[in-house]
């Protein structure tokens, strides 16, 4: 009987060992697979986003001030007549009018000769006065005559300049009504529209809550869907101190630097205005935060299990958030697989 009892005991030991291994396997299988990341400090910048239409900072439509025969000039850079899209330098003559009758009435050559004669006469009278040859009155009369002829000559140049349509600034031709060269046009005829869009203006509306954080000169980043790889810089150029009672917003204007003319007037653009920055903060992805009745929660891995942490957040971007309280540097936060977690859930890390 004794030998029989020993054999029974030895037979039970493997069975018990097998049962123990099976329980361990079950325990491992219940661990939830998760991915984690170390909590680190980095910079975070919060922006306020707004949209609007970019318009040329300088725009002008030039009209004729005199009647005459229309003559479109050649672009010195292309050798052809000016056309839509051409860049015109300040001071270039785009259109010239011809009107012999008006030009004769202006008589600029005669007025120039009169100026030269009166200038010689004044110098003569001045020299004689210094020698006692003429009276002060005679010298002053010659001086008045010179001043009068100088005024007549300057007025003639002004009148003659009205026969030319001159670019007031460097810009692009954006409208050029077709007129056949040699055709007579009347006074006040629109002949060309120019824009300088190396700088653009954009009107914006901003929420009342940020009025204390926005100021003139603040840097802004401009993007457009047609230029996905380009971000242009702008500055807040003007701000209204008045809050709209209907929209609870206030108006502003942005000055956009567009030296390569990538943005075009009329484009719809997005503006990102920096309102706050932290250069060293605990920053996590918004996607890993679980919101509940207790507040915002994330899960921290400690010794193979997780613990939920209530966090207090600060600055935010579209994808990230600053954690003010609730997390410490170098802790391991769950980034994937947190959806079904509870406090003390066993986890198996599958990705660091």
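^ Assign residues to that structure.
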């Amino acid at each position: 009987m004794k030998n029989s009892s020993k054999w029974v005991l030895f037979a039970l030991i493997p069975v018990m060992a097998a049962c123990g291994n099976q329980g361990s396997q079950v325990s491992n299988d219940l661990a939830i697979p998760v991915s984690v990341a170390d909590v680190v400090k980095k910079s975070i910048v919060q922006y306020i986003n707004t949209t609007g239409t970019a318009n040329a900072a300088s725009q002008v439509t030039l009209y004729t001030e005199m009647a005459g025969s229309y003559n479109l000039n050649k672009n010195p850079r292309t050798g052809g007549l000016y056309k839509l899209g051409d860049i015109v330098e300040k001071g270039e003559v785009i259109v010239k009018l011809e009107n012999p009758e008006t030009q004769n009435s202006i008589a600029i050559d005669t007025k120039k000769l009169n100026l030269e004669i009166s200038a010689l006469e004044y110098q003569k009278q001045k020299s004689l006065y210094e020698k006692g040859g003429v009276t002060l009155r005679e010298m002053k009369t010659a001086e008045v005559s010179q001043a009068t002829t100088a005024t007549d000559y300057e007025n003639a140049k002004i009148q003659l300049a009205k026969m030319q349509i001159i670019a007031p600034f460097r810009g692009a031709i954006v409208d050029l009504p077709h007129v056949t060269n040699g055709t007579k046009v009347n006074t006040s005829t629109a002949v060309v529209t120019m824009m300088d869009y190396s700088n653009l203006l954009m009107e914006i509306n901003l929420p009342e809550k940020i009025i204390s954080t926005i100021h003139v000169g603040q840097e802004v980043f401009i993007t457009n869907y047609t230029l996905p790889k380009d971000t242009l810089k702008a500055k807040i150029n003007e701000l209204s101190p008045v809050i709209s009672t209907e929209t609870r917003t206030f108006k502003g204007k942005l000055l956009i630097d567009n030296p390569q003319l990538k943005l075009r007037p009329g484009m719809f653009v997005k503006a990102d205005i920096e309102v706050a920055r932290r250069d060293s903060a605990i920053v996590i992805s918004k996607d890993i935060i679980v919101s509940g009745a207790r507040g915002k929660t994330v899960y921290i891995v400690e010794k193979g299990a997780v613990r939920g942490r209530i966090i207090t957040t600060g600055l935010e971007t579209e994808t990230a958030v600053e954690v003010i309280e609730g997390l410490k540097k170098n802790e391991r936060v769950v980034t994937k697989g947190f959806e079904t977690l509870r406090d003390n859930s066993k986890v198996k890390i599958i990705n660091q």
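Residues 17 and 23 are 10 Å apart (CA to CA).
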